[in-house]
């Protein structure tokens, strides 16, 4: 295996900028496969990928599944409502059960921070964290970096604003780390109640005013309100939140004319982002989804023991 010499992908924190570059370059070759007439290569024939999802997911689960299939791996999806988890089996026992089937890669999404690491310590298989609580979501940060690099041709020297429910967002945490490693200056903006205390220690500039935060940046990354992780009372009403922190066409006037707008999805239309902005010319939301597939193909390839794709 070239470059990355670790068993698991648990966080952006553990990746060096060279590792990130290797993954993005590999994803570029993978993107070519997706454009072919026959979108399947034999690279991971005989390898088994298990998608173990304890939380709802559309984009992430489907793209890991399609990514595995395009590389000819056998892909098994386990969602908790259809597994023994509903009978009370804990993560450790589920892990041991999976281990007995000798998978090569286990992709896990779980509501508890640290769940991916817990599993990684117990499995011989490579574990890829597809989101653990409010902690990390490395494949999302990688696809976001890929999308920015593809659009602007570079990462170094850019400025990005990450806006919204920073405190509950694993996407924010992984992106702050990944962006900074790649030389992007990062601002975060949101209501005080959704900004973690001491967030500036992560090396970001902090704003509580959206218009000020989005001035001068090259990328605006909007986040979904993670109501499933919030305690009540973080803001007076959705309308109030949207008035102060929703990205509307009117608000975009405070931004650079060619600014890029991103959102990991699922979006709350009309709450954190107006429909005409989400579907508008600056929006990279569909590109993020498309690139998610290429990046996840690259991750499966690299973590199943491949080198850089030729
Ligand atoms: C994100 C997640 O699950 O953390 N979604 C995703 O993976 N595309 C963001 C979110 O749920 O808001």
Tell me about this structure.
This protein has ten helices and nine strands. 36% of the residues lie in helices and 15% in strands. The model has no long low-confidence stretch (mean pLDDT 93). The strands form two sheets. Strands 7-6-5-8-9 form a five-stranded parallel sheet. The chain has a four-stranded parallel sheet with strand order 2-1-3-4, with helices on both faces. The protein is an alpha/beta fold and 310 residues long. The protein has helices at residues 17-35, 59-70, 91-99, 115-122, 138-152, 170-181, 210-214, 238-245, 275-278, 285-303, and strands at residues 48-53, 74-79, 105-110, 126-132, 159-163, 185-189, 205-207, 219-222, 260-262. N-carbamoyl-L-aspartate is lined by residues 59-60, 131, 137, 140, 170-171, 224, 264-265.
Strand order of the largest sheet: 7-6-5-8-9
Major β-sheet annotation: 5 strands, parallel
Give the helix/strand class: alpha/beta
Q: Which compounds are bound in this model?
A: N-carbamoyl-L-aspartate
> What's the tally of helices?
10
Query: Based on CA inertia axes, which overall geometry fits?
Result: globular
The tally of strands reads: 9
Low-confidence stretches: none
Question: What percentage of amino acids are in beta strands?
Answer: 5-15%
What helical percentage do the residues reach?
25-40%
What is the first-to-last residue Cα distance?
A: 13 Å
Mean pLDDT score = 93
Radius of gyration: 19 Å
String of helices and strands: HEHEHEHEHEHEEHEHEHH
